[in-house]
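seq as requested:
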Amino acid sequence: MELERKSGILLHPTSLPGPDGIGDLGPEAYRWVDFLSKSGTQLWQILPLGPTGYGDSPYQCFSAFAGNPFLVSPILLLEDGLLTSADLKEKPVFPLDEVDYGPAIEWKTLLLNKAFEAFAKKGNPKLKADFERFCDEKKAWLEDYALFMAIKETQELHPWTDWPEPLKTRDAAAIQEARTTLVDKISKHKFNQFLFFRQWLRLKAFAVEKKVEIIGDMPFVISLDSSDVWARPELFLLDENLNPTFVAGVPPDYFSATGQLWGNPLYDWEYHLATKFEWWVSRLGATLELVDMVRLDHFRGFAAAWHVPFGNTTAIEGEWIRGPAGELFTELKRKYPALPIIAEDLGVITEDVESLRDGFDLPGMKILQFGFSGDPEDDFLPHHYPTHCFAYTGSHDNNTARGWYDDAVESEQQFCREYLHFELAEDVAESMIRAIWQSVALYAVAPIQDFLGLGSETRFNLPGTTAGNWKWRMKPDSLTSALNTKIRRLNTLYSRLSAEEKIRYTQWLNAHRGNGVKPH
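struct tokens:
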């Protein structure tokens, strides 16, 4: 079967406009999906949806299975009768162009607590039945997660590694006491998850209706301070004191001269192999419940991961250690035959990584920003792209196209101008988008910042740094009809409309051929 050419836009839900300090799953999210649909854009790419921890990074979550409760929409809770208009009256004034995480989290927590109180008091029978069904369906991870978060509240949000020893080591008596004394807090965290899944799955159903597929993101590693590591330490390389023996990162590369030291624990692959990768199968399945395709972040880690001895302050010293990648992906393919996975194959890519990617017929990634060193043989230039790949102007880890150009050295700027055939700096983003849209790559994706022509002040993340990231928000008036028309025209010109849309366009073209009317 011939695969369709498609296009997509990268925008994490926290970057959506909205009245409550952080993008959420309410009306603006539906407006966004509708915008994509009307523009003929078939893919919406997001970052991980988990509950964020240190640094507000979606790649450092308190759970590999839970959702971020701060994405829950108060407007939808109002419609459900779980909040009243009076509950929203004391709302702080939030900036429109960024997330101020402290006040936003404080406000959303207050509203979530009120919603839980209303749920407990009013006792809507259908909602209660839905909640009980949700708790039963998700109990494999929800019980541990809710307990973890409830204890964390009593421990002033300190990492579990700093908790009192009986709680840290999950002493049976201590855990039973916590389950008894924290029953209300546990229920509240379960309810927050119920709200997230309820709102997200409704939004996803709307996307299906609008023929928009969602590309999710599954990090290779997960946070040390997570319910997964606390509840399932046998999955990871930990010592007798539950400290990691090795932590994850990458050696020096184009992002950092000292490498990137992420600090996440790494996997005990012998255990995973012995259990037929049941945790990985469950994890991928949970992610695919929320999205249509999954980008595997740091894909090369499956072939071999950079193991840095615990306690090191940089990632310079480490060792590549291989994992049972072939066996893992064989098991994943057995459970999910379509294997709707994108391999984030950036960084230090060796033959074993390429073999793993190609052996399971997974599309890789091409980042156009990386292609302008001046070498026409650079693999990141569109004339070298394979068909089966995702082409990007840049990812969430890159500067915006305009920001990259402004910061680039003169020789890179000159090569970029010559290659893309433009003259003015303000035209670089549109030229980059056009280059990957017209490439043979089946899938072309750009961050919304590039469609808006925005500069480095709107960069979403700078790898290797812990402050000032993940904050950018799209302004409420950004999604204009003119922008929609421009994107639709690109999708039409470069054959990235759906088959159904192409038929309609051809019919329109035949009916208006020669009359001078410009197609939309």
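Residues 501 and 507 are 10 Å apart (CA to CA).
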